[in-house]
Amino acid sequence: MPPTSPSLKPVAPEARLLQLDVLRGLALLGVLLVNLSMFSGSEWAIDAHLPYPMGWGGKVLQALTGALLESKSAALLAMLFGAGLTIQAEALTRRGERHLPFSLRRVGTLALLGLAHSFLLWDGDILLDYALISLLMLPVLHVSARRILWTLPLLWAAAGLLILPFAGRIGAATDLLEQAARFNALSAEHYGAASWLATLKYRAWEMVHVLGPVRLANRLPILLPFFVLGAYFWKKGFFSEPERHGATLRRMALVFGLLGLAANLFPQELVWSYSASFSFRPLRILVRATYFFAKPGLTLGYAAGILLLLQHPVARKALGTFAPLGRMALTQYLLQSLICTWIFNGHGLGLYGKVPISHYLMGGMALFALQVWSSRLWLARFRMGPAEWLWRRLTYGSPQAFRLRPTIPATAPSATTP
Fold it and tell me: Model confidence at 200, in pLDDT bands (50, 70, 90)?
């Protein structure tokens, strides 16, 4: 693999922005808690209206996790990924180099990691989806902050063209998922009790015929706007200099935070029946449109709120605990899949469909705390996580320093030295 330009190299740890690493680390908590419903089998069982152990407060915890974290954590990571694409494109442009070859190499490597993750470990993977969306984003990374949001309709159209050839497969996958009891039985049979090889074969079938098409149809149009918003946040300076945009971030946290919380906590049926009582049709449409956009808008409320908190020294010190996890988010994301599949799948502890919701959510919090601690411990000895090293090694096409060089303290001059 030929190396890229010798002037290209990863950002030094001391040059990284704390706020981006903190946001990335916190987003991983939401990703883990949401994904546990798929790892454990509870999501498929509940969709099939089959009994599943809840544990103490499990029903409430499940509802809160779905309302406050589902889709929002992945969307926040999508914003950060969109910002990262923009940061690198701008850095290359300042050096007088073309960003497209490097970006394609980086995105292609991410796609390979996503494919390996999807087929070998867990087909709920998000990396491949991010890689596909990144390809759509590459042509618009140099659009100004004032205009980049207006590229979204064009990008949606491009996503539609990408999805269109798979319409038949998407329809068949949706039909199978609607047979919830059958799909739950298949999942329990293969993930709950089968050998690793049998699980691998089933996962490949599921990836090609079920979850792969559904991911393509659902995640691309839903996550694409957040990639664009991430690029917009960077270009406007919200991510890079949040202290200069305090007033805007406060308004954003207030509006999107409060409206987003209300929209996600109130059932759609209740809002629809309430709006139906309005005789003035435009008002009815306004209420429903506000509800529709406020639900994913909670992600912006989270982002703005955390950026504001980081401006206060006490909160900055506390939230800074999550920055090392954010620096090795790829490694820890893959580790979440490795640990959870071992716990729930038949080739490991075989707890698929057996762990109460409250128990696995508490276990998820414990695992996250362990990831925060282990990230700090790892980065005290190494420059990056192993998955980050592999990604950079394949992207840059040249050796990447992995271990931290020990600092040798300067020797004080001897009193007898002339």
Answer: very high
Domain count, the chain: 1
- Domain membership of residue 402 (yes or no) is no
Q: Residue 358: inside a domain, yes or no?
A: yes
- Over the stretch 311-341, which tens digit does the pLDDT of each residue have? 999 999 999 999 999 999 999 999 999 999 9
Predicted pLDDT of residue 285: 84
**pLDDT per position as a tens digit, 55-70:** 999 899 999 999 999 9
Q: To 5 degrees, how large is the angle CA 334–CA 336–CA 337? A: 65
End-to-end CA distance of the chain: 55
The token pair at 72 is: 């929002």
Provide the residue range defining the domain that includes 43: 13-396
How far is residue 324's CA from residue 374's CA, in Å, rounded to a whole number?
A: 9
pTM: 0.91
Do the domain assignments include residue 401?
no
CA distance 153 to 157: 6
CA gap 98, 355 in Å, rounded? 51
Assigned domain for 407 exists: no
